[in-house]
Amino acid sequence: MNLKDLKNLDRDEILGMLGLETKSSTAGWVAGTLGTFGLGLLVGAGIGLMLAPKPGRELRGDIRDRLRRAPEDLSETVSGMTGRDPLTSSPSNKAY
User: Does pTM surpass 0.70?
Assistant: First the structure.
């Protein structure tokens, strides 16, 4: 092997000839993972906005209304399954 051959080798090949190898860092792995996650998040949000059936103002209003109704809906679901009102812990008077 001469000097010209060494110039054509990359870092990993030279380290391999010496019996060494590069060590991957945890920070590099985490940065790559978070970057991929962030990119996926942006792509998903963009696709969601393009395919949204309503304008943003209407969609936000619907989400707000559903979140306000969530405790009532949960209460009705639980009382329907158990026969008790979870908010008062008393038997429900509703007939299904």
Answer: no
